[in-house]
Amino acid sequence: MLQDASILAIVEIVLFGPSLILSLVTTFKHGFGRQAGWIYLALFSLNRVIGASCQLATETHPTNRSLYEAAITCAGIGLSFLLFATLGLLSRLHDGSSSFAIPTRVFRLLHLPIIVGLILGIVGGTDLYSQSSSDSNQGRDLLKASVILFLVAWVVLAIITIVTLARTRLADASERHLLFAVVVAMPFLFVRIVYSILADYDTSTQTFSQLDGNITVRAFMATLEEFAVVLLYLIAGFLTPVISRAAVQGAGSFYDSNTTQGPGRNGAGGAYNGGNERGRFAAGGAAAGGFLMRRWERRTARFTGQRYGDGYANGYGRNGAAFKEGHQAGVTDAV
Description:
Blueprint: H1 4-30, H2 38-57, H3 65-94, H4 104-128, H5 133-165, H6 176-201, H7 215-239, H8 245-251, H9 268-293, H10 298-313, H11 320-334
């Protein structure tokens, strides 16, 4: 007869096997870019299928330490992929913005604690079932450090989510699915992290053990939370239209309210920015014309001022007056 842990492992295979396929479909739809986020759902689902398979294999090979090591390692590092997925979805919302309060480097730096937590989880899970007591204690300490890093990453992601939620009114309707999915998923992620903290720090009881603990607690504090997050992100992925990275960077995100009149991806922001850049270039031309006029003969100066002043002023609307003033100043100085 199967143990309770093995029954839950079968349930995880049933849940995360199809999610692996759906995650790959969503990834192919949106692309494999890191900012997309869905590739991490595929990695997470694969991780859960492997971990559950190893757990199930312990039924027939109860003395095989490698199976326990693989199962506990998969259980420990799975959180990193969900955090990466959350970070990827938030990064997509902010990608291309030139004026939003959260700079791109924040998202890049946030990868660091998650990556370090992932590495510590792998090493810790490997050492935990070592025959050496010192290695086993070291493995437990590494797992504790790993989950604390995951908690730090979650706190930063929660702050980013709150800041982003405050700007929801500026979001394009098609992109709001991503934000709402992250908002709903954050409490599930928090419960999952709390479960890992209790599993690693509560050594007085086996209730929260990720392998042989209370199966009901594990099902409702770990498996259910993980599947809820995956399901939310998959639904958001299917509802969100495909937007190329070049289009996002070229037009600016919908948060770039300083340069757009409404959603940046409708093209208005890009058109305004393009005109503004031409204005700066023309203004530079007018200044250069005035500078050269001070050194050329009167006739040459008038000709140069005409080229760099009036010539660039034509067709630039709101900036035309400034260019004409530069031209007139150049002519006056030359005279």
